[in-house]
Amino acid sequence: MYLRNLAKVATSTTGTGTLTLGSAEPSFLTFADAGVADGEIVTYVVESEAGREIGRGVYSLERCRGIRYLIRRIQVLP
After folding, report:
1. Residue 9 CB coordination number (10 Å)
2. Which residue in 43, 44, 45, 59 has its CB near the most CB atoms, within 10 A?
3. Whole-number mean pLDDT of the chain?
């Protein structure tokens, strides 16, 4: 397992299922630019106004996607 530092990308994916990865957030790198190889298993965090999701997934360079394996979901309660 490798530590990939400074990778943070936008996503418009909602709900569950495959994450579609967008461009890098300002001052961060894409997964590919951070050295993540096609098919590599990565640990990820998704943050939104509704909460956070922590999981593992397989990165696909060709499709710029991560396949989710949920570890924990934390929801923000009103």
Report:
1. 21
2. 59
3. 79
Mean pLDDT over 24-39 rounds to: 90
Nearest to 20 by CA among 29, 10, 35, 31: 10
Q: What sign does the CA torsion over 24, 1, 14, 47 have?
A: negative
Average pLDDT over residues 24-42: 89
Q: What is the pLDDT of residue 1?
A: 56
Strands (E), the chain: 9-11, 19-24, 41-48, 51-60, 65-75
Q: How far apart are the first and last CA of the chain?
A: 37
Instruction: Pick the more confident residue, 43 or 1.
Output: 43
SS3 32: coil
Enumerate residues 6+ apart whose C-beta is below 8 A from 6. 28, 29, 34
* Separation of alpha carbons 66 and 23, rounded Å: 14
